Amino acid sequence: MTTSYSDEVTAYFKVKADGYDRVDEQVYWRLSDELLWEALLRYVLPSVPVGATMLDAGGGTGRWTDRLLRHRPDMTGVLYDLSPDMTRHARAKSVEHGYADRLTVRQGDLADLSEHVDDGQFDLIISFHNVLGFVTDVPSVLRQFANALKPGGQTALVVPNRYHAVYFNVLTGALNEAERAAVAHSTRFAPEMPVMKVFTPTQLTGTLNEIGLPVTTSTGFPVAVYPGFQETQLDGSSGVVKAVFADDAVYAQIKSLELRLLGEPGLAERGNNLFVVAGKPR
């Protein structure tokens, strides 16, 4: 078996697993999640057919599988992740929220995805946040996504933005990490985190186009406010984030602004996260 995950990555998520979903309590990530959900509603779900099958690649505790399968009771899914510490939370959610009969949870490394799923099996593949950053051979994994999609299927990806990684590490005084992001296209956002790849819109869309998954949407979010160091932890908010989101009215106004900008291609370079949707030709 090949491997795309180091022992360091596995150990990191073992420690994080039980508290991972507390990210929902942090105001910055709540905004980020609301923007991602809106992006899915606008640019992905309208073309996902009734009775669709989905794959959550590196789905962890199942935060997004949970949202999608509860929103679309006609869909069935597979959550695929290396960490048993993370996926036991995904199984518990499926029982608690009544879709255990529609979700299969599988353990495995994304480098070996094709050994665990069938070609042409899925209408939708999602892979969100740092998952692809921890993969050794990103083009190989994306080719396996392409093989696993049905003709007309889509993949929706959220990955860390190289340009934001440079900015964030300068902001927090981690100049060596800022330089690594700029030169080596990899970084970490906190000392305890494993090193991960970071991406540019041109790089990611180019790879997808080359492997036969033409890009239909490339943008970024959030773009009006950025996380601080505390947002790399499971609890709390950085001072700058607290100051920006001073009260509910301010939060609502910023969210409205972000929603107005969401989807503009020129914002891909500016977003904390890159959001890319690509489709497999029929």
Summed up:
With 282 residues, this protein is of the alpha/beta class. The chain has 10 helices and 9 strands. This is tRNA 5-carboxymethoxyuridine methyltransferase.
Could you please describe the fold and organization of this structure?
This protein is of the alpha/beta class and 282 residues long. It has a single domain (7-279), classed as Rossmann fold. It has ten helices and nine strands. The protein has helices at 7-16, 27-43, 63-71, 84-96, 138-148, 162-171, 175-184, 201-210, 239-244, 248-261; strands spanning 53-57, 76-81, 103-107, 122-127, 149-160, 186-187, 196-197, 215-221, 273-279. It has a seven-stranded mixed beta sheet, with helices on both faces. Strand 6 and strand 7 (196-197) form a beta hairpin. Helix 6 (162-171) packs antiparallel against helix 7. The longest helix is centred in the N-terminal third of the chain and has 17 residues, at 27-43. The radius of gyration is 18 Å and the shape is globular. The two termini are 32 Å apart. The model has no long low-confidence stretch (mean pLDDT 91). It comes from Lentzea pudingi. Keywords: Methyltransferase, Transferase.
* Strand tally: 9
* First-to-last CA distance: 32 Å
Question: What is the CATH C-level name?
Answer: Alpha Beta
Helix count? 10
CATH-defined fold name: Rossmann fold
Q: What is the approximate shape?
A: globular
Which secondary-structure class do the elements indicate? alpha/beta
Widest sheet: strand ordering: 3-2-1-4-5-9-8
**Topology as a string of helices (H) and strands (E):** HHEHEHEEHEHHEEHEHHE
Major sheet characteristics? 7 strands, mixed
When the domains are counted, the total is: 1
CATH level-four homologous superfamily name: Vaccinia Virus protein VP39
- The low-confidence runs, each spanning 5 or more residues with pLDDT under 50, are none
User: Into which percent range does the helicity of residues fall?
Assistant: 25-40%
Rg from alpha-carbon coordinates:
18 Å
